[in-house]
């Protein structure tokens, strides 16, 4: 079995897609994504409080459903300079990592959170107060509750 | 020593059922050891790596029921990486090769495969009971084998497993001639259920006592199922989205009125908030109520239900019930023995659904309470001292304050005195979980007073090695100690190596133990398996020159008579 930082089942005869990922602070560094140093705070901890995965999932989907009665989890995503936007269902992602991966694929460029860069597009979001913020500073679940739309900024502008 | 023939002694031993007692009588003399060996029916193995199946079969050739536990308890909270171990396959293979007439298999936190289930179903003609708790690695195909091949199956009880659901026809694999089902619990399956097959199965199972459905069984199906099985004692409701379907609702209400035997109710996995009222007619007989997954049901509806449940002995509920709701429980449920209150808000976002007041109310109102698991946002020493005074009969006391290191919210003091009062008053305390701001002092109290303590869970607590030492030196009956994110290091770990021979296991993660310390321990105690779980670095620890002082991410050690296990994955290093 290769030594990699990502997880792979060793002997199970079936892959379980409902199993929650382990703490996403052990990020797979082979993806071309960069996070500022506080990555351990970003993703919601999967091991505290000490409740079983099934209850954790139930509570997560409950909060998402409750939130759904006010606003949909589909948010508009715009790339700066491109007039036509896309729509993305944020409930399908488990965290910032998977969101960035998906956006990078969707817009065919490398999208990151955090530090401004002359090469990369930086992801920002509009929160429920109407303010534009840098994506990635708050825990994922909290982000889902407050995000209203996404904008991928051009490298220099941010 | 023996004044009676062996058969008489054996007959007497039949009345001795607890594992501890049977272990004791086997130590009396050689003759009793031999008689006990051949007559032991139920074998319990708390750690599957402490012994091998071959040695088990040599000692107990005639057992009928086997209970096996695999992963350590903290695996329930994602602290043990996938693939660590706990594979049941070698056990099933060894049992299949032998001539053991296995009738019951109970597994907890183990990895089970479809191949294993198929082998199990084909190897034991009298197989009656399969209970899987928190297991993973199999799919509904494995269940199909069990259904097809186990002619005498009575119990299929799947509790909180991760099962790959192939949208099974597994339910239709029970033969039409099969009528002996007593327990069927598939609440943890996520996929669609063949409702026709389910209804036919239930209709031809006159002995069915326990039925727990998954979320794919809607209201109208529930009504039909209940109508053809009014003898059910234990019901797990799947889905209960009442789309104002009045016909199904009426059918359900009619069925519920006939449910005079119902004693236990659970489920409501997908539930419209007002649906509980249909069950009010049966509440007065309920002894067990588990609504810990009914996240959508409002506190007020929970309270209305509980007001009818005067005979309740066991209650598992979410904190949406609130302190007010717990006061209703305290005044209504005078027979209550076990209470679990689970959190709904994982971020501590200021939603103080239950507080120390709820806990105090319960302790004052429920004189028979002996087990509690309580998640809350805040606690005080005064409340814990009151609880200890009200309830000196606790056997299990688990308190989880959601925010680590949180002090008494009134005095800002650590909660040492509160937990100290609990261990001092509760002389029969066997299991304890502590939380909040705690110094070494609380462990001094635990070591001094918790003489019967067998399992202790520590998180984000303590100041120095002294804390852990107080516990190791004081708690003579300790069996399982699990510690995370606490400043205990090598000095505590190595102080008394022989202590670990009296315990089942020790878990330490995100503590201060170093690789050097663990290596020294492994050298001193060859009868221990000392496992280092380091997912991030794999075995780069060895290459790094500072290994002696390098902190170990996760340590799991356990006594064993069969040495190092051979099935460990690369990220587990057994010293």
UniProtKB/TrEMBL annotation, chain A:
GO cellular component: a single term: nucleus
Region named Disordered: 1-52
Keyword annotations from UniProtKB, A to Z: Auxin signaling pathway, Nucleus, Repressor, Transcription, Transcription regulation
Main location: nucleus
Keyword Transcription regulation attached: yes
An example Gene Ontology biological process: auxin-activated signaling pathway
InterPro entries on file: AUX/IAA_dom (IPR033389), AUX_IAA (IPR003311), PB1-like (IPR053793)
Residue stretches of biased makeup (Low complexity): 1-14, 29-40
Domain PB1 per the UniProt entry, residue ranges: 72-157
Source species, domain of life: Eukaryota
Record-linked Pfam families: AUX_IAA (PF02309)
Function according to Swiss-Prot or TrEMBL: Aux/IAA proteins are short-lived transcriptional factors that function as repressors of early auxin response genes at low auxin concentrations.
Similarity annotation: Belongs to the Aux/IAA family.
Protein name stated in the entry: Auxin-responsive protein
TrEMBL record, chain B:
A GO biological-process term: SCF-dependent proteasomal ubiquitin-dependent protein catabolic process
One GO MF term: auxin binding
Record pathway: Protein modification; protein ubiquitination
Protein name per UniProt: F-box domain-containing protein
Keywords: Auxin signaling pathway, Developmental protein, Nucleus, Ubl conjugation pathway
GO (cellular component) term, any one: SCF ubiquitin ligase complex
InterPro entries from the UniProt entry: COI1_F-box, F-box_dom, Leu-rich_rpt, Leu-rich_rpt_Cys-con_subtyp, LRR_dom_sf, Transp_inhibit
The organism of origin for this protein: Brassica carinata (Ethiopian mustard)
Subcellular location: Nucleus
Every F-box domain range: 4-45
